[in-house]
Design goal:
heterodimer; B: mainly beta; four-stranded antiparallel sheet; globular
């Protein structure tokens, strides 16, 4: 079955450092991958989308990579700030495409210490 | 004002009761989705609708039903609530332009507890 794995353990880093979160998938050949941020008591908020033919995508302090050989995406936050503390979710389009039906990972909690 | 609004935000009810969760959106999107989120399981798709006349089951539709009353409104019903339906429920929308690759826009959820 199609499966997405994110590190279930919280990631704790110091302010100013780069945070790197991992998303691995199996039994998939997704056309694209999305990253979302979720704060406590709130719905997920879309951050970035990367397509299978893109190796890297950037938006301000955020960078996403997509390695279809390793079946892995890495999400980086540079110069991290306490306000970046949240749960980050990756999502892939469900097999069959063109439907915008997403499968979500369970998310990784990031805590940035001042 | 929120683009995707869910009501109620919190609900506590008893086993066997019928519950309706409502979602309305001002984004003008055709596509709407209902998810539930449980600790350790992530977001799972219950139902989705690509337009007013289209309703599709997701991966965990048993025990749930939906109604798409208008482009902007999509409601989720639990016909006879049971305790394992206790969860955080999210409604989301997406644009149909370009078919895929569209981000989804979420409401802030309904926390449902079934005793």
């Amino acid at each position: 079955s199609q499966k997405i794995e994110q590190n279930s353990e919280a990631l704790n880093i110091q302010e100013g450092k780069t945070a790197t979160l991992t998303c691995n998938y199996t039994n998939y050949s997704p056309a694209y991958l999305q990253w979302y941020r979720q704060d406590p008591g709130r719905g997920p908020v879309f951050l970035l989308l990367i397509r299978e033919n893109e190796k890297e995508k950037r938006k301000e302090r955020l960078k996403v990579t997509f390695d279809t050989t390793l079946k892995q995406s890495l999400f980086h936050i540079t110069a991290s700030q306490p306000a970046d503390s949240a749960t980050y979710l990756c999502a892939l389009e469900r097999y069959g495409g063109a439907t915008n039906k997403l499968i979500f990972g369970t998310g990784t909690l990031l805590a940035v210490q001042p | 004002d929120a683009d995707v609004t869910q009501t109620p935000r919190n609900r506590i009810t008893k086993t066997g009761k019928r519950i309706m969760l409502e979602c309305s959106q001002t984004k003008g999107h055709d596509r709407m989705y209902w998810y539930r989120q449980d600790p350790g399981l992530g977001l799972r798709l219950i139902y989705y609708s690509f337009d007013v006349k289209d309703i599709n089951k997701g991966e965990i539709s048993d025990g749930y039903s939906v109604s798409r009353q208008a482009q902007a409104k999509f409601s989720l019903s639990l016909e006879s609530a049971i305790p394992n339906q206790t969860a955080l429920y999210f409604c989301a929308t997406s644009d149909s332009q370009g078919m895929s690759n569209q981000p989804q826009h979420f409401g802030d959820g309904t926390r449902l507890s079934i005793l």
